[in-house]
Amino acid sequence: MRIVEIPSFFPPYGGEFCMEQAKALASLGHEVTILAHVQLGVTVYPRGWLRAKTKSRHLKEDGVSIVNTEMRGLPRCPKINTRRWIAGVRRLFAAYIAEGGMPDVIHAHCCKWAGYAACLLHREYGIPYVVTEHLSSQLLAEELGEPRSGIWQADLLREAYKEADRVIPVAEELVDDIAPYFGKDYRWTAISNIVDTDFFHFQPRPDLEGRRFRFCCVAHYIPVKGYDVLFRAFELLCEENDKAELHIAGRFTAGRECRQAIEALGLGDRVVNHGELDKEDVRHLLYTCDCLVLASRGEAQGLVLLEAMATGIPVVTTDRVPRNALVEGGSLVVPVDDAAALAQAMFRMIEHYPEASASLSHKIAEMCSPKAVGQRIASVLEAATLKTAP
Fold this sequence. Notes:
Helix content is 43%, strand content 18%. It is of the alpha/beta class. The protein has two domains: 213 residues, Rossmann fold; 156 residues, Rossmann fold. It comes from Candidatus Prevotella avicola.
């Protein structure tokens, strides 16, 4: 298939999920081109905004062709910026067709606004499109506000969902999560995001003899990640067990607010704060720990849980994590915001520790490896092309 990928986000503002899926599809023999039109914000990225590369750049990475342009976003002009962004995507698409002809299918990442742009291209050219949805209601609320009637963005996006050949939420729970904004009048198939299982591969852990049991949490220090509950649970655990330590890492964990929360509970000598880590350092941290804990109040998927299990260690998390981030025999689930239940689950992990497991790692590879996810996405895209074949 000739596949055009349209991301809503791309470097310097994310885009990793789009790139991973594009590479997975290319590795299966498909011709994949990413048309990335990036809106730069003057307050978020002032230097880049001034130096915006408005002329298209052509790149190649791991078999994926990338055509990239940038535009300067206008402060406090969401409607104008949306129209300008969509116009930029349409220009890229017209140039793609002029150079090499029609693609077989369009694959958009996030309906806001790549999915809507794909919808307009479908109306103009008759090309089928599929939308992979990554955004949770929490992220949508930051821009759209709470669900209500009269949100102009929601009306447009609802059309794009309905006209898509298929919507791919990264977890089935996401359908109910975003329903207050967009309803459910569309066809969907849930497919997990990709876990780099070659990178996060299995590795045995050091023997527990003579050392503390090492829990870790890899998450930004923001309310939705539940660090307040985790710290309280760890305090309760330490009252019963002096052979555990907690390692934390993520954006804002090195900040004063996080450090004060740790000190307020007297956990300074039991919590190791690593701050924000890159991908390699996250893997190293996972390889030195025995169990990952995530006290999340909401996740679109919870990839860090899958990454931890891919390395062979079990996880403890809450019932706000989607089911496709959990594996039987590799995860314990407790009610959200219940520090006592979380502490009990952590204690259970210490008392009945399932040693780092190659079979657990293998299960994650079967679920979420680039090949496994790529094949599932390809089957959805191919089905879309067959429906419109002459």
